[in-house]
């Protein structure tokens, strides 16, 4: 079977009204989101705190069939694999920077039945993550310093995306941070196919139209 790249839009709920987490998440899915990107922060790897597996588990209790990706901005990603798998996470994306044995973490994530994504901060060279492509399902190139939503898109990160796309034509490449209608062309032309977008979707007056625009821009670039 031939594998084709697919444009996928995963809204980040970080800047949503988290007191309405279920309603906000369901609305995003009803408006056409392909998956949910759940930002988990531990106050150590990044200077911010969000939520952990108990919250993800409650959300899974109400939303049975959507694809959940957790973006683990944590110092010890190995610590949360089992609870996140038990909470119903489909993809466990973690930062490689603080991890000694990335291969072991990837192996353990897969052993728990989840897909594995490897993420790098803007200051980390792409060669650092390239080493793990053969044992992971996706690479996340951060386009802001991890920790907060609503930051400015770093266009200089597109060189990493371009490099990966040129060398790995079928690799799932995700971008995250400051992505929205005004920056999607950059991401699409560089070769990203999985798009995380928080503020631009959450704050949009017409979420469905914004999600559709992001997806069609990326799909058009893939089809070129
Ligand atoms: O991981 C992060 C931030 O660390 C993200 O997922 C962002 O929170 C996305 O939000 P916007 O930059 O699109 O507002
Ligand atoms: Co994120």
From TrEMBL:
The active site is at residues 39, 176. It is an enzyme of class 5 (isomerase). GO terms for molecular function: D-ribulose-phosphate 3-epimerase activity; metal ion binding. Keywords: Carbohydrate metabolism, Cobalt, Isomerase, Manganese, Metal-binding, Zinc. One of its GO terms (biological process) is pentose-phosphate shunt. Pathway: Carbohydrate degradation; pentose phosphate pathway; D-xylulose 5-phosphate from D-ribulose 5-phosphate (non-oxidative stage): step 1/1. InterPro entries: Aldolase_TIM (IPR013785), Ribul_P_3_epim (IPR026019), Ribul_P_3_epim-like (IPR000056), RibuloseP-bd_barrel (IPR011060). A divalent metal cation binds at residues 37, 39, 71, 176. Its cofactor is Fe(2+); a divalent metal cation; Mn(2+); Co(2+). It catalyses: D-ribulose 5-phosphate = D-xylulose 5-phosphate. Its EC number is 5.1.3.1. Substrate binds at residues 12, 71, 147-150, 178, 198-199. Binds 1 divalent metal cation per subunit. It holds the Pfam family Ribul_P_3_epim. PANTHER family: RIBULOSE-5-PHOSPHATE-3-EPIMERASE (PTHR11749). Belongs to the ribulose-phosphate 3-epimerase family. This is Ribulose-phosphate 3-epimerase. It comes from Bombyx mandarina (Wild silk moth).
């Amino acid at each position: 079977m031939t594998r084709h790249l697919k444009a996928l839009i995963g809204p980040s709920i970080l800047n949503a009204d988290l007191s309405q987490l279920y309603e906000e998440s369901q609305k995003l899915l009803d408006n056409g989101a392909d998956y949910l990107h759940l930002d988990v922060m531990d106050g150590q790897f990044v200077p911010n705190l969000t939520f952990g597996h108990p919250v993800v588990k409650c959300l899974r209790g109400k939303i049975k069939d959507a694809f959940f990706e957790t973006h683990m901005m944590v110092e010890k990603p190995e610590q949360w694999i089992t609870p996140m798998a038990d909470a119903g996470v489909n993809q466990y994306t973690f930062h490689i920077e603080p991890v000694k044995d990335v291969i072991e973490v990837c192996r353990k994530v897969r052993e728990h039945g989840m897909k594995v994504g490897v993420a790098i901060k803007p200051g980390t060279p792409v060669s650092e993550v390239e080493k793990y492509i053969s044992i992971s399902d996706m690479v996340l190139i951060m386009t802001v310093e991890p920790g907060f939503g609503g930051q400015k898109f770093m266009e200089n990160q597109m060189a990493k995306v371009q490099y990966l796309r040129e060398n790995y034509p079928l690799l799932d490449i995700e971008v995250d941070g400051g992505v929205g209608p005004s920056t999607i062309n950059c991401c699409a032309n560089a070769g990203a196919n999985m798009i995380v977008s928080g503020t631009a979707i959450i704050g949009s007056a017409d979420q469905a139209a914004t999600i559709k625009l992001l997806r069609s821009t990326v799909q058009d670039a893939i089809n070129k």
